TrEMBL record:
Keywords: Oxidoreductase. This is Mannitol 2-dehydrogenase. Residues 38-286 form the Mannitol dehydrogenase N-terminal domain. Gene3D superfamilies: N-(1-d-carboxylethyl)-l-norvaline Dehydrogenase, domain 2, NAD(P)-binding Rossmann-like Domain. The gene is mtlK_1. It is an enzyme of class 1 (oxidoreductase).
């Protein structure tokens, strides 16, 4: 990616205008008119465009993967604005890399269409039924998999899942749409597809398989068995810090001479590790640095436990202290020491090494990435949907530490900081606005917990039986009392002592 001199003359991003863009911006070297679709991607947010779409684009730049172009899709009506923006600019995206040493920009052309967003998802089902489509990939966030909190697996009691079981021809959910498309493929003889999750879930392929086959078997047991036997659901691990797009990101694109309604910024690091389990072929991703391996678990455990859990270590206290970005958190002397102590003493001991990387070295790598001041990754974005992220990223570490007899003081403090944040005010009294799909209920419980801390742990759908643990529950209650009486920084300083 070439460095760019900033340019104030912004040109509207489109296929026709590519030759007019400044020479400093890297452009697609391939003829997009010759591309053929091979992938439908559902959940077309910033992360996908900075990660999976970039890898496919890099292959195309090398003359490969011309029949693996991406068709964008969504099952959420609120994504209509993004669709309108991308369609207006021929589904092109400006990627701006933010390195501590400078900035650079490139135009990504691997996506060639964005399907209409419809209540019954008919266009999506039809496209996934197309013989050209061999991979359906997903970035639908950790909370989008309808996982039963009490039983694991698909939450068949959820109203949307119950609707899809009763109305398979007009589904509401992404999994209902996938099952409907697979039913059409089976009946027409088109054959199976690979469903590739790119979300931050351990065993994301296994979870996706469970959701798709579990729903299909409720609708038609024969269909469920066909999917289980014929389709592939590879596990994967994805890694790249990609901030949300706001006015400053739009201004950055303008500075490069590009009028892009939906640019994406990202750090100068990315990684993708995928299990080699594709039933109808795949792009040659290893040519552009993707790790293809039969064992994704160790890579994803390291990333999810050190990076994703580390994000939650920082974000909740960052919100309480009014620290706007993750880099601001790392620049705060007390918060930074808090992060390093928990990572090295209470998280890294429960992470295994992977080829070329030990847990302590990965902690240092993550700390450097989090400290990059060019990445304006907001604490609010990272703290969003804590009810899913704490359950997925932090609570498994707490349980491992308790089983091993290790320290959980810092991790209990992290949970107490989350409870305090959900009360809806910062340490200085300013408001924290709604930041979780279940915010109203969380806020009610958090405010009750100010007087009776154990109330927070009694949320069994999140904490299970941790409320009964003789070490964790008292530690949590003590920290929450201290945060309310002395403030967040005083609690962190007590832990550091």
């Amino acid at each position: 990616m070439a460095s760019a001199a900033l340019n104030t003359q912004a040109i509207a991003l489109s296929e026709a205008n590519l030759p007019r863009l400044p020479e400093s911006v890297d452009l697609p070297s391939y003829d997009r008119a010759t591309l053929h679709p091979g992938i439908v991607h559902i959940g077309l947010g910033n992360f996908h465009r900075a990660h999976q779409a970039w890898y496919i684009h890099r292959l195309m730049q090398e003359g490969l993967a011309k029949d693996w172009a991406i068709i964008g899709a969504s099952v959420r009506q609120q994504d209509q604005t993004m669709r309108d923006r991308l369609i207006a600019q021929d589904c092109l995206t400006t990627l701006i890399e933010l390195s501590p040493k400078g900035r650079s920009a490139e135009i990504i052309g691997s996506m060639i269409d964005y399907l209409p967003i419809e209540k019954d998802h008919s266009a999506l089902i039809a496209k996934m039924s197309d013989p050209d489509i061999r991979i359906v990939s997903l970035t639908i966030t950790e909370g989008g998999y309808f996982i039963s909190a009490n039983k694991g697996g698909l939450d068949t009691d959820h109203p949307d899942i119950r609707h899809d079981i009763a109305n398979p021809g007009s589904p509401r959910t992404v999994f209902g749409a996938i099952v409907a498309a697979l039913d059409k493929r089976r009946q027409s003889g088109v054959g199976p597809i690979t469903v590739l999750s790119c979300d931050n879930l351990r065993g994301n392929g296994d979870i996706t398989r469970s959701a798709v086959t579990g729903l299909a078997k409720r609708i038609d047991p024969d269909l469920g068995n066909w999917i289980s036997e014929q389709c592939s659901f590879p596990n994967s691990m994805v890694d790249c810090i990609v901030p949300a797009t706001g006015p400053s990101e739009l201004a950055l694109a303008h500075g490069f001479g590009i009028d892009d309604a939906a640019p994406v910024t990202h750090e100068n690091y990315r990684q993708w590790v995928i299990e080699d389990d594709f039933c109808v072929g795949r792009p040659e991703l290893e040519h552009v640095g993707v790790i293809i391996t039969p064992d994704v678990e160790a890579y994803e455990a390291m990333k999810i436990r050190i990076l994703n859990a580390g994000h939650q270590v920082l974000a909740n206290v960052g919100e309480l202290l009014g620290l706007e970005t993750i880099a601001d958190c790392m620049a705060h002397p007390v918060v930074s020491r808090f992060f390093h102590k928990i990572e090295q003493e209470e998280i890294a001991p429960y992470v295994s090494a992977v080829p070329g990387m030990t847990p302590p070295k990965y902690v240092q790598l993550v700390a450097q990435r989090f400290s990059n001041p060019a990445i304006q990754d907001t604490t609010r974005r990272v703290a969003f949907d804590g009810s899913s992220r704490h359950s997925e990223f932090l609570l498994p570490i707490i349980r491992d530490a308790l089983n091993a007899g290790g320290s959980i003081e810092g991790l209990a403090l992290v949970e107490a900081l989350w409870a305090r944040m959900c009360a809806g005010t910062r340490d200085d009294g300013t408001d924290i606005f709604e930041n979780d799909p279940d915010w109203a209920r969380l806020t009610e419980v958090a405010q009750q917990s100010a007087q009776r801390p154990i109330t927070w742990l009694e949320q069994s759908h999140i904490y299970g039986n941790l409320v009964e643990h003789p070490s964790f529950a008292p530690a949590f209650c003590s920290w929450l009392d201290r945060i309310w009486s002395e403030g967040s920084v005083a609690a962190l300083q007590a832990y550091l002592r």
